[in-house]
TrEMBL record:
Compartment annotation: Secreted, Extracellular space
Section covered of the full-length record: 297 to 545 of 646
Residues annotated as domain Peptidase S1: 1-242
UniProt name for this protein: trypsin
Species of provenance: Triplophysa rosa
Length: 249
């Protein structure tokens, strides 16, 4: 997160750290992406975070990757579902969304606590200019490494029309994306925040509205962050969740 501040404990209880290591290796896991808990056994992340050749561990409930914390929960991934229309080009990432089904331990996945709680989903959109929140362990303006400390920042939803203007992202933007941040730069998501939440609040409820996806660098003027537009994928999300019920039952 560029231009962020230290997150308070329990401020983003849906925030996950996705930690990776090569399949079958004994290396330690290292943070690579964010994710958002939407149900005790389900996480939303970016499709570009899912790699067949890597084992994923999910860390929930913490605000510092380097601190032991009894509030942390570590879970494994049972199965990854990448959106079938996910496309990566030199211009953009399209439909950059994936669902991770967590592996149950003793019949349960994530346990709801003060520091672990799911974010909500909605089909509704939010008006342009709405102030929403991004959070993550990604790169900061201070140095080029991930931040062990969870950081967050307020960003504004920017209209599609504005973001599709030639001096911003032009036709690289489509309706699977949301643009958020500031045209003057400075405050933004960055590498390592990918897959993590853009959350907007309505009537005291926090909704996952975007998934950190891409952008031209970080914090640059006229290059706000691009997020997968979660409300465009509600039917797909429900379809995957329902489909996976019938797999085991
Ligand atoms: C990345 O490389 C990345 N400023 C994530 C977010 C943004 C840019 C790059 C948005 O994962």
């Amino acid at each position: 997160i560029f231009g962020g501040r230290k997150s308070l404990p329990n401020a983003h209880p849906w925030q996950a750290s996705l930690q990776f290591r090569p399949l079958g290796s004994n290396e330690t896991f290292s943070h690579g992406c964010g994710g958002t808990l939407i149900d005790s056994c389900w996480l939303i992340t970016a499709a570009h975070c899912v790699n067949e050749n890597e084992e994923i561990r999910v860390e929930l409930g913490g605000t510092n990757l380097e601190k032991d914390d009894t509030a942390k929960q570590f879970l494994e991934v049972e199965k990854a579902f990448v959106h079938e229309n996910y496309t990566e080009t030199n211009e953009a990432l399209y439909n950059d969304i994936a669902l991770l089904k967590l592996k149950a331990k003793n019949g349960r996945c994530a346990l709801e606590t003060d520091s672990v709680r799911a974010a909500c989903l909605t089909r509704d959109s939010f008006p342009d200019g709405t102030q929403c929140t991004i959070s993550g362990y990604g790169v900061t303006e201070k140095n080029d490494t991930v931040s062990p400390q969870l950081l967050d920042a307020k960003v504004l939803l920017i209209s599609q029309r504005r973001c599709m203007s030639r001096n911003i992202y032009g036709n690289r933007m489509d309706d699977s994306m949301i643009c958020a941040g500031y045209l003057q730069g400075k405050t933004d998501s960055c590498q390592g925040d990918s897959g993590g939440p853009l959350v907007c609040k309505k009537d005291e409820t926090h909704y996952l509205h975007g998934v950190v996806s891409w952008g031209d660098s970080c914090g640059i003027k006229n290059k706000p962050g691009i997020y997968a537009r979660v409300n465009k994928f509600i039917d797909w999300l429900h379809f995957v969740l329902r489909e996976s019920l019938s797999e085991t039952n």
